[in-house]
Amino acid sequence: MAPVRALAALLACALLPAARPEVKEAPIRAHMAFLADDLLEGRGTGQRGGDLAVAYLEAQLRALGLRPVAGDGYRQRIDVLGARTLMDRSSVAFRAGGADLRPAAGADIVFASGDGAARAAFSAPVLFVGYGVEAPEERWDDYKGADCRGRLLVMLANDPPPTAGEPGRFDGAGLTRHGRWTTKFEQAARRGAAGVLLIHTTESATYDWSVVAAGFRGEKFRVASGQPGCPVQGWITEAFARRLLASAGQDLDALRAAAATRAFRPVALAATADATLETQVRTFPQYNVAARLPGTDLREEAVVYSAHWDHLGIQDGVIINGAVDNASAVGALLAIAQASVGHPARRTQIFLFTCGEEQGLLGAEGYVRAPLWPLERTVADLNLESLNWVGPARDIEFLGGERSTLLDLGRRAAARLGMRLRAPEPDVQGLFFRSDHDPFVRAGIPALSPGFSLAGQRDYVHDPEASRAKARTYLDRYHRPADRYDPAWDLRGMVQQAQFILDLGRLVADTPARPTWVRRP
């Protein structure tokens, strides 16, 4: 070939787009099967199985040749405080209207220490505070200056409901950040409450009592440097709440109706709570695992892909493997990282595996507090959570995507796969606030969990109605020992989701303009 023709050919090749990184099924399946194996013991926080998961992730990132994000190691230490309530030495009881009420632990009440104290004992007046919400943007304040110090607060779960006159109040049928139980606990602690108990209904919590009870079994965790909660925090059943309020001369339905109005004021109950907590406390390290693929001309900025490696571990001698939640996403993120090697984008790509998500987004919170990459140069977080194990679909769930310009990029990425984004639906379960992208959101970074769903109302390719029915069976396995890996699973839908997230991430990484908020959550 003549020199001029050879040079022209080389220039033409240089101007062609790089080959598209392609996510493969085999690594997703292999990683997921291993991480959800009994050998990993459910990858529990502060448990041996979690340590094995961290070692595995670190080895995989090294093998791929990816670089540490900061320093010379792949681990980011997050110090965690663990508190295990010694239930045989702990109790919460009430005196109301001359009656002594002793709710049965696990059946009527679940509770734990929120401040990490080894011992707490108090007698406190009980105050009903409606939904326990303070939301200036909604012109809503359930506290109205009430002195909550040293009191035990009883409150309703979820947001104040919309009305015919205000159908969009508190996002209508969707759950806002104000309705999250974590927000309510934080509000109570800031006001100096001795304790806080939420009244559970399946409708308001969006999950049944067994899920609440499972969440309070064993140790409770928080980032050791974080703000402590109340000395006692937990939930009571609606049936017990009715008994308590009736003994105090109140009616739950009447109080609930009053609490649904802006005029509501806290109600001091003719009741006293007597609490004694003995708690076994420890502080120990957990680890996020992170690696980066350096970018080209915009390498000083980064897009983060994240997935949490932890699940519930061993509880009462039983392994809760967490195959869908969240070995599916960890396997997919490792496969995304593998596909990306050799295909740098303009911006740096960071692959972040977080700890302690099941305990309150601990790893993501820890990362945002002490980021390995400056937050001002982090343009987006795309979080992977509980991916599609049913089969291929025609659509992608993009919950919360309409809140930022990620929506436009998401549409482009979906179209490239011959798919479409699902239209926004009411976020009844508050899923947008329940996964590891949320600390990035609160730090001002556009973020979401594409494809995250507990039930999967997708437009499946094969027998859509039967596939949706199959997906809904996961609700019976969520956070239970039955969330086990099945080699017979059709992972083509999971490959679709992983490819979509990689394609979206590369669009974010290659587009000169950074994503911006349209409507901040």
Give an overview of the whole structure.
- This protein is α/β, with parallel strands linked by helices and 521 residues long.
- The chain is 29% helix and 24% strand.
- The chain is built from 14 helices and 20 strands.
- Helix 4 links the parallel strand 8 (152-156) and strand 9.
- It starts with a helix and ends in an 11-residue tail after the last helix.
Task: Provide key terms for this protein.
single chain; alpha/beta; 14-stranded mixed beta sheet; 14 helices; 20 strands; 29% helix; disordered N terminus
Summarize it.
The protein contains 14 helices and 20 strands.
Which stretches are poorly predicted, pLDDT < 50 over at least 5 residues?
1-17
The biggest beta sheet reads:
14 strands, mixed
What distance lies between the first and last C-alpha atoms, to the nearest angstrom? Answer: 60 Å
Strand content: 15-25%
- The proportion of residues forming helix, as a percent range, comes to 25-40%
Query: What's the rounded overall pLDDT mean?
Result: 93
Kindly name the structural category: alpha/beta
Molecular shape: globular
The Cα radius of gyration reads 24 Å
Instruction: Write down how many β-strands occur, each being a DSSP E stretch of 2 or more residues.
Output: 20
Number of continuous helical runs: 14
